[in-house]
Write a structure and sequence with these properties.
Elements: E1 22-25, E2 30-33, E3 36-37, H1 38-44, H2 47-56, H3 62-73, H4 80-88, H5 95-106, H6 118-143, H7 157-166, H8 172-185, H9 192-201, H10 207-219, H11 226-237, H12 240-252, H13 271-287, H14 291-307, H15 313-323, H16 331-352
Antiparallel strand pairs: 1-2, 2-3
Helix pairs in contact: 2-16, 3-6, 5-6, 5-10, 6-7, 6-16, 8-13, 8-15, 8-16, 9-10, 9-16, 10-16, 11-12, 11-15, 12-14, 13-15
């Protein structure tokens, strides 16, 4: 059978694009973003630095960073009509579905929607990065009969996002940890949602359409929704011993345990998970309660011993967000908001050097002779 007709379930191992944006170097255990190790950047740089790096292909100096921050603050507000639409959504609407609706609605306010130039796509990207936190926070608040919170230009980008979600201004540690989570979620090569964005944009569809499709992709429990499932398990168990029992029971029943394993990190722990684990320890120490940390460590040991698999980012991001007072159903929308910059970078790159995605299939059905 020729290479061109081989079938790879889930496209595993198939190289689908050439990119300068990011690469998962599993041999070195590094997440390369525009030539830099993301984990090293996360130790000293914040989300605005990573945002600039992904869109401008270099780290910003102080003036460039300040300019981007001011630009974003001018994009914080969303049209009042979009907030009115959120009021019409059924109360059981999942925040990811509200986000998908809001993303689609934003396209109607772009007066130059058919312009795919690099300059215009970058302008759109910064506009979306300013508005998505507002959409995430206030669609949730409205659906839950809470008053929307207007963004505060007096706060940093990440502190303002946290404020709109929780209604309170974060402490310095809370702001630092929340920002770090955005950095770690910002870009990760070619997961399903990024592939979705590139497939859609390869048709010359616009940035809003590509990201709307990405929201739908990320909502799935095998992708972004895993962080919600992790927190539900932790809350169900309540104690270390019960969490251990819960995992042992799931293993015995051969049930999938969310927060562990990764298609790329097969034999190693996700390096982003290690950083979030450290953040969880910081929050537990600050609050004088290390129950969640002990539970997560116990679960990590069981899964390594029994299955030889390790935590991914979602496993530790979930309890971090819980300790920050963030509602569980917002974990995946926050993931998307952080990933928006990576998605925009991929769409921009796709538009700049496009080739329509049009794969073939391995047909396994029958062929019948039709007689009239």
């Amino acid at each position: 059978m020729g290479t061109e007709s081989r079938f790879f379930p889930g496209l595993e191992g198939v190289v689908a694009a050439e990119t300068k944006i990011s690469f998962l170097d599993t041999q070195q255990g590094e997440i390369i973003v525009q030539g830099y190790d993301l984990i090293q950047l996360a130790k000293t740089r914040d989300y605005l630095d990573i945002m600039y790096l992904l869109l401008e292909e270099k780290l910003p100096d102080l003036d460039e960073k300040k300019s981007v921050e001011n630009n974003l603050k001018n994009e914080y507000e969303i049209p009042r009509e979009i907030l009115e639409v959120f009021k019409l959504l059924p109360k059981q609407t999942h925040p990811m579905d509200a986000l998908r609706t809001g993303m689609s609605l934003l396209s109607g306010y772009d007066v130059d929607l058919d312009n795919r130039s690099l300059e215009m796509n970058k302008k759109r990207a910064y506009s979306l990065l300013g508005k998505v936190p507002n959409v995430v926070a206030n669609s949730y608040r409205i659906i839950n009969n809470q008053e929307p919170i207007h963004p505060s230009k007096d706060l940093s980008y990440s502190a303002n996002f946290f404020y709109m979600i929780t209604g309170k201004k974060p402490s310095l540690l809370e702001e630092e940890i929340f920002d770090r989570s955005l950095v770690l979620y910002s870009e990760h090569e070619m997961p399903n949602s990024t592939f979705t964005a590139r497939v859609i944009s390869s048709t010359q569809s616009d940035l809003y359409g590509a990201l709307t499709g990405s929201v739908a992709s990320l909502k799935g429990s095998l992708h972004g929704g895993a962080n919600e499932a992790v927190m539900q398990m932790l809350l169900e168990a309540k104690t270390v011993s019960r969490f251990e029992e819960l995992l042992e029971t799931k293993l015995y029943k051969k049930e999938r345990i969310m927060g562990f394993g990764h298609r790329v990190y097969m034999k190693k722990i996700d390096p982003r998970a290690l950083m979030m684990k450290e953040s969880l320890k910081q929050l537990c120490d600050m609050k004088g309660n290390d129950q969640l940390y002990q539970m997560c460590e116990a679960g990590e040991k069981i899964m390594e011993k029994e299955k030889g698999i390790y935590p991914n980012l979602d496993y530790y991001a979930a309890p971090v967000y819980w300790m920050l007072g963030i509602p569980i159903s917002l974990y995946t929308p926050i993931f998307f908001s952080a990933r928006t910059v990576g998605l925009c970078a991929h769409v921009i790159e796709q538009h700049a050097n496009n080739r329509l995605f049009r794969p073939r299939v391995h047909y396994i059905g029958e062929r019948h002779t039709y007689h009239n």
